[in-house]
Each structure stands twice: as structure tokens, then as C-alpha cells.
Input
Amino acid sequence: MTIKEIQDSIVEEFSMFDDWMDRYAMLIEMGKECPIIDPQYRNDNYLINGCQSRVWLHAELKDGKIYFTADSDAVITKGIINLLIKVFSGQTPADILAADMGFLDEIGLKEHLSPTRSNGLLSMVKQMMLYAEIMNNQG
Output
């Protein structure tokens, strides 16, 4: 699936719920499905700066595509990082760099997060883009 197709399916999933508490519950469930980072990457080198909670993110390039794993000490944050992993993992660095992140506004995520969580979301996206940039330049 393309990034856009994945984003569209996420928008569709979120639109099934009118109440934001239901959407938060969905994020919590997504956090439980997060591809867990190998313990060797759960250190300060992989910690995302700018997040209220501790979030570790690792990226690996395999066959020209980036695969992400992550972990967090907060359930909502873990759901948010997994949402981004669903969008970006298994995609090429160039496709990640070209991705339109408007779907985050479409699902209302930014407007329903606290300012510190919203900053954390932006930090997560920036870190994933940075990995894509580095790996794009390697290839």
C-alpha cells in the first residue's frame, strides 16, 4: 500500500468514532500493537527529544525500505508512534520524505492533544523524516 492509501484507511477508521474518548481508546489499542524496539535501542541515542513522555525510535533500511520499531512509557504516546509507524514502515525513504501529513489534521489528532503531546507528535514526525533523509542520502 502507498502512504496515501494507508493514511486514507486511518482517516476512515477514525471517522467511525464521533467521540474523542473512543478515538483515544483506539490509540491506546494501537499502542498495544506497536512493533517493540529491541532492548539494545532503548537508550538515550534513540530517544526522541521534544516529547513529554519517553519515546524510543529505531529505523532500519532493508531492501530499500525503512522499517521502524518503537516504545514509549505512556500508552497514548505509544499509540501515536505506532500510528506513524503504520504509515511509514515498509516505505522508501523518498516516499516518506514526500509524504503529506495532512491526514493528522483530518483525523483531528493535533487539535485534540495537549500542547505538549502535540509538540511530541511533531517531534516524532521530524525524527522519522530525519531517518528517511539520512537513509535516502545513503542509498
User: Anything to note?
Assistant: The chain has one domain: 3-138.
